[in-house]
Fold each of these.
Amino acid sequence: MHTNRRNFLKLSATAAVATAFGGLGLGCTPKAEAVDRAAAMDPKWSKQTTSICCYCAVGCGLVVNTSLKTKRAVNVEGDPDHPINEGALCAKGASIWQLAENDRRPDSVLYRAPYANKFKKVSLAWALEKIAHNVKKARDENFTHLNSRGQAVNRCDTIASLGSAALDNEECWAYSTMLRSLGLVYVEHQARI
Amino acid sequence: MTNHWIDLKNSDCILIMGSNAAENHPISFKWVTKAQEKGATVIHVDPRFTRTSAKADMYAPIRSGADIAVLGGMIKYILDNDLIFKEYVLEYTNASFIVGDKYAFDNGIFSGYNRETRSYDLSQWAFAMDENGNPKKDPTLQDPRCVYQMLRKHYERYTLDNVEAISGMTRADIVKFYETYAATGKKDKAGTIMYAMGWTQHTVGVQNIRAMAIIQLLLGNIGIPGGGVNALRGEANVQGSTDHGLLYHILPGYLATPLAAHQSLAEYNKAFTPVSNDPMSANWWQNFPKYSASLLKSMWMDDDPAVSFNYLPKLDTAAASVYSWLNLFDKMDKGQFKGLFAWGMNPACSGANTHKTRQALTRLDWLVNVNIFPNETGSFWEGPGMDPSKIKTEVFFLPCSVSIEKEGSVSNSGRWMQWRYQGPDAPHGFKPDGDLMYELMHEIQALYKKEGGVYPEPILRFNLEGWATNGIFDPHKTAKLINGHFTRDVEIGGTVYKKGTQVPSFAMLQADGSTCSGNWLYCNSYTEQGNMAARRSLAQTPEQEKLGLFPNYTWCWPVNRRILYNRASVDPTGKPWNPELPLIQWDAITKKWVGDVPDGGWAPGERHPFIMTRFGFGQLYGPGRADGPLPEYYEPLECPVNSHPFSTTLHNPTAISYADEDKAVCDPRYPFVGTTYRVTEHWQTGLMTRNQEWLVEMEPQMFVEMSEELAALRGITNGEKVIVESVRGSVWAKAMVTKRFKPFDVQGTVIHQVGLPWHYGWTWPKDGGDSANILTPSVGDPNTGIPETKAFMVNVRKA
Amino acid sequence: MSKTFFIDLTKCTACRGCQVACKQWKKLPAEKTVNWGSRQNPKDLSGVTLKLVRFSEVETNGKLQWLFYPEQCRHCVEPPCIDAMTVPGSIVHDQETGAVIYTSLTAKEPNKESFAANCPYDIPRINKETGMVVKCDMCNDRVKMGMLPACVLTCPTGAMNFGEREDMLELAEKNLEAAQKRYPDAELVDEYTVRVIYLVQTSPTSYHEYLEADASSIQRGPLSRKQFLAKLASPLKRMNS
């Protein structure tokens, strides 16, 4: 995570009484020591966008606050104006901030050469060029113009694709038609299993 | 879903069977709870007492895989006690149709069975036709060959004794369940079903759903608020990904993938354009040629659809046993594939029979894995039992944006297409999947342009720029292309649509290439009025508000119709069956329907309501399925019994399986029924959620739930590490000994069942365990190919 | 303005959205846990877990109930933990909302255990890294901005409710009446002495030892506990069984 654990703790230790609290209670005025979370929701500091939860297919609405400075998410919660969830989210949905702000996301495209025992970092451009060559080779060397009955089938039987119900509609459609243009017929995804 | 999430609140009886909605679709319980508050009864039928059962008004345990026995028994109960919604059944279902002479059923086998190919000749099950080419009917329902009488005969074996003996459900539960649910067969009552993979992941998956659909039709529960047949669906966009044809057998819009037999667009259209001679039948698929031509145009804008049809790859057969998932991996294991894209998927954990799947990956020359986190698929070569120095596979792992870091739409189970906006930027310059697709395809096109290649036309002429603006993937432009536009000036009914105008709805699509539309079902989603999926108005008429239709919030396919088959919610004169909850009503003055967008604007009684079926009727008898026109009871391919009461045909005779893979049937080494499932805190293979510490904190490790009785039998204490093993492999799991599993009495024998989540994998967390699919068999439903991961046989022992 | 939570446990599905929403808003770290034969995890509240859904299986006469209890600070009307305060300002009782808030000054308290000892619900915990005594703060920052507490916003079924005290008491009575049709033993717990009122479907102890303040449960902080229970013993305490 971008904010380390210690910072979290400092934040949580103090923010609870930061702005929300000016001279209240038993005659004490706790000192505001850190950034406070509620103020971070202010349009001065963050932009607010709506999204839809990426997990099950109920389609719950989200409100995402993104820091204008870091361009990273600062808070994700249920969209109270969404008629299906009315602000509600389950454990997974409530955790989406951590999906994005997560140190376990790798920092590069990775490549594993044949027989190698580890990944190495490569550029996206290098990877895409190599993948394109692989696709062309597998397709061109084994293209099936005619099936065993002599019928024109114009397909590529040596590349398969799996995925994905996690893609957006526009991506699904793009991917579906792109694969067909390459001649793929072994096209499957989560709906099959 | 025929209906949608909010509509659950309109139900009088919610049956949750084959799903665990409170845990896997938690927010659905907002609307289930609302229904309960208004007096609805919630019934949960499941092998295990779950968070759903905890909230249900009635919970009835059932042995995994025994659903058709129980549902078949309900069909018999409804018919025997004459609890059907008579007018609906007579007017709107095929109950009165006469079944042709060739149909027969004997001892678990339907007519037309070929033992060699383990498949049926479906033509044997056709209806008897009259001189006009329409099905013969007997409106008195007395003809012994009419569907109604056929149903009675078929299910006469499904007695309470038989159902009780095989399902493990108690007699009292069965009767109470039947009574409660069948009470929705009244005009002013609605019953609904919430099902998920608990029904589909069986070798009789499709017939499980068929059995419930029959019940819903008999009770008049389809097309009405609070009713329907509702698949809950497990992924944010599994509805959309299916709509857009990311499956071998369909192209976008559920257009069948062409077969080798279709050597021209005309032949293809002819094969998939049904003909009905009944003027009352809308027979919506008669529009197939408009949709196929518009799709081809969207893919190859500069070609005549008759030409670009040749660019589409053709299958040798539509059979699931050849191209679907299980067979894909069987062929991969045998070395057929050079390359694999695993794009937003983790098959090394999600597919049945994990060891076989992981082994198959070693046969590839290359693998492209696009995902958020490293996972068991992209890293298979360093997984348990793998020696990287012996594995040739080249692997490309491409990280991508997460959903809140990109813009585009997803379609939920209720078919709502909902637009998402980009919030944060992705770290390290990562891109959305769409950008990666565009850039890869651009690279491939450039390579063919530069070097030439085999059959390059489909690639070179592909409308790639239709997705992009200034060389960058553009979700808006793509969404507009999916909706479609006029490719030249076209006059329809006196209105001229200029070239480039967005097509207002699929009724305007043309078969001559004058329109393009990437997916006819989404035509109307991005029109000249703008992006309908981005709408956020909560405005409703009082009637709509009562139902919670929200017609101005986002957009729903088809043409913003919120409840499918809604013409079945009114009687043939247009009056709602339930005047308290009108879904659509005919306004005699304006001559228009008000309420939901109707299933076609025809006046009441002008069309049969089931417009997507050839004859316009709900199909009690369904002659199009691979394994029979009526659901029949069979045991899972791995089971604890060697006989059942309904026939001597133990298993589905058409199920997909591999003869060289052993199956445990009454095998003393694997005495317990196993099943897999999910928990609220993780998702699918856990790839996304296992990498989030808040979620791992709550569900850190693989576990196996078992009854106190089974734990005592095996000397297992709660929380200890145990081994669960099947014919295919074994996994460790923490024992969760619980009162929520109880042994079943099956044909007088005590049968234990255990259950495991399938969220874990060896990559992360390190002490989390591995996939439950190591245990599951590669056997599948003959219609869909879906594997039977909900019922298989295991042993459990102390570690 | 005086706020109160009403938590209807007959409607809780233990989706644990609240448990995560709490951590998400406050950006609290996760604990390292293992599966210990229960869905409940972490096992207990802690210095970084201020809201915890507890699970318990109860079977009586062959009828199984799986009980879910999202546990949190009660924000007592007369908070007995204030008696444990020795550093002025380590506990703040917000007179506007009624929130009982532990501040960073709790780190300077000489006897931090006394906070929990004085709590009839065993809520306060010590954060080992900051040394602070911690617990739910009613999302007072959100509430002041007109937002719902994170746990309440995220609850799908209407189990978690938050609002003006009178409105919550009214809702509690209404839901109690509805709940008793299905659960004759349903009751409201300590509704006149706390700002987090639970509606239980069966005896509070079936859920957890400290769901209800109980004189017989523990004796760790006798003086303040006695004072607190004296208040509870007033005729206002209501049992609907």
Note: Chain B is about 25% helix and 15% strand.
Amino acid sequence: MNQVEKHLLADSQLCREQLADTLAYIHSHQVDYADLYFQSSYHETWVLEDGLVKEGTYNIERGVGVRAVSGEKTGFSYSDAINVEALNKAAEAARSIAQAGDSKTVQVFSDVRAPLQFHDKQPISSMTDADKVSLLREVENAIRELAPEAEQVVSSMSAVYEQVLIAASDGTFATDIRPLVRLNCSVLLNRDGRRERGSAGGGARLDYHYFRELENGQPRWLSYAQEAVRQARVNLDAIDAPAGTMPVVLGSGWPGVLLHEAVGHGLEGDFNRKGASAFSGRIGEQVASPLCTVVDDGTMADRRGSLNVDDEGTPAAYNVLIENGILKGYMQDKLNARLMGVAPTGNARRESYAHLPMPRMTNTYMLAGEHTQQDIISTVKKGVFASNFGGGQVDITSGKFVFSASEAYLIENGKITRPIKGATLIGNGPDVMQKISMVGNDLCLDRGVGVCGKDGQSVPVGVGQPSLKIDEITVGGTV
Amino acid sequence: MSQTNQDPIFQRIEEVKQAVKEVLDYAQSLGATAAEAAMSSTSGLSVSTRLGEVDTIEFNQDGGLGISVYVGNHKGSASTADLSKEALRSVVKKAVEIAKFTSDDPCNGLAEKALMAFDYPDLDLYHPANVSPDTGIALCKAAEEAALAHDKRIINSDGATFASHQGLRVYGNSHGFLAGYPRTRHTLSTMVIGKEGKHMQRDSAYSVSRIYSELKAPQAIGIEAAESTVAKLNCQKVPTQKVPVIFRADIANSLFGHLVSAIGGGALYRKSSFLLDSLGKPVFNSCVSISERPHLPKGLASSPFDSEGVITKEKEIIINGELQTYLLASYAAKKLKMQATGHAGGIHNWLVQPTQGGLASLLKTMGTGLLVTELMGQGVNTVTGDYSRGAAGFWIENGEVQFPVSEITIAGNLKDMFMNVAAIGDDIEKRGSVQTGSVLISQMQIAGQ
């Protein structure tokens, strides 16, 4: 018995046989599939604000979700208590989705053995509380040294230690340990009464030591501090952004939020099974320029969006969504995969035991092309270069999506000239993807801070892309 | 809501109060000099249908406890969704432990005792309905069916959802304040998909109430969803230009939401607001007045006390464009050397005063311009007031709708936008914490073709 099984079952006087009994009890109604999702998570946050350790918070979550699926119908119930009575009560509620009667027999459990994309680390105890606080102080001191004029500096650090156990009537029995850490900092600068903020951060499925590791010859936390100051300074110099439709060059890394919004959500299996997406029924069609190959990859080592197994126990995978512009496949969970007659892709995710799983992204990115960023910018006579973004949003049915630049520059006659204020870019996913005319050789992923929301459920994700050129998209400036 | 009420929720509230009291006592026994804790619990049902078939039935049971302890001026916080005795004690211990590593910050601590809502009104927020899954499913089916039958261009559905939840909220602190009350919330919504040519559009409609029987009829919700969806078909972009813009009532509350962020204590003491030092000064055009009424019976954003136990009171927020108050929880209030205003956790029923008739009258006043019915993205910078968001809606000429518009942005700076509010309709949207009619802004930059 491994640690997770002991923690989530044995410590609550439960065993595999009882889970099999519960699943059999659900299957005495006409259901196709049932699963039990046990979860425990510990989450802490430390916040340092202007030299004061302002906040420390600690959160415990623990419970079990019980799901019964019959055809397209799902019954779901959950409990914050893990014991036989709570499990049976939830099972009774969940199976009410289907009438009593014969259904498929419950398969004997077989342990899922998936390759590990990240390892069992306990980030919360990886540093003493005093050391966590002193790391945040170092971040603040570095920012104040770089920008003595800073009006306000906030740095924060958080860690999650999550254990899950999935037992399903198709025989799946999987356990997983999912560490996650994140460090963020922000600085507010004031120049002659004009205030601008800059912020930066990073994270991974590792422990707090990740932030002290050297990257390009200096500790990671120091790069975040430098980046926050640099961004605030750029924004202090920014002039009004242009309004209208024009060529836009996107930088590498975080600007990959483009792919997350323009194609990612639209390729999630549930929307496509329902025919609700602008990409529905288009497998095999040219949906992007031939320069575009887009993948969703849950198997990247230690990445924030990576998974060992998804929340249905399916091993994470490298899934090609679009290859040379041709739509290859959707991201699936078991329910939608079965209804669409394809295999699950390792994309079933849920915020917690109290939420139903859905097809979700992991790390979504575009493969590299052949141009340098310099080459790409030099082809634009008048346009915008956007190197950093805030969030985005998409209407998957009409295909319209937005994403908001937080750092951008004017391009004039092939050269970057002045920084411009943040502006929202809006386009139609399938159209914009066709207008990608150059792809860079500088693929990289974001630093590990992404959160994706869908139907009120948040999950950590990654995005990435090489620099690329969109021939035409609407830029929402003011002049 | 008398204490003799037979509903078991009242018994449950007493139990939760007892649990909160024990948690506070335990914190003090561990060395906390002050402590506050909030506990909530919600149970209910959420069902959905799609194309006439059941999609999901969810039985919800959510709850949690959050505690903050103060050891002198050091603060520690912890929370748990696991309400077992062991979990409660372990988070209290953890909070006390955390307080050893947080700073000695004189602004920490409970809100002043004199501000506590020791005597608070019953706001009539609890109307349990015990709706069965079958009844919920029937409502969903009726709403969706009405939408699908309303127009042949409605070709698909994203489904309909009915949810009915009842819950309780208890807050207590070491001033001896300990209070709780029950509340209910019922919602019915549907979203459908329309198609013309190759292009699809979706839109939704919903109803929400504390009282089940006051939900709108499912047929009306279905028809509204179908009509909004069909109205969006064959949309176009419009040229890049500066024009007057009307924010329709159901999205106009977002404008006042940006005001909430900008005059909130957190943004102010961090100097991260475009409305610093604006108390008593004009921040809106003089036609704008906003009142707060926290005690509206059955109100969706009604609350007898805020999340620090501070009593909520009737307040004027904006009078003839001038800002009357900031929104301060106790920490920010102390930072700013002011008094807490009862806004820890948010605002309570803002009523924006209309200046003229309904949407039609506002369209006439505008003449030619853009009616915005949908906003996308988060392109709002509270530090600078810079505003740039995706938008969709309708092009208006001579006060009449011409055609649907999409894939454009609207941009400006909130300071200017607030000053350029030219009129507010009496078509008041009552489903949110800000009740406002449609808002006409005399000029914004549109980016389109």
Note: The radius of gyration of chain B is 24 Å.
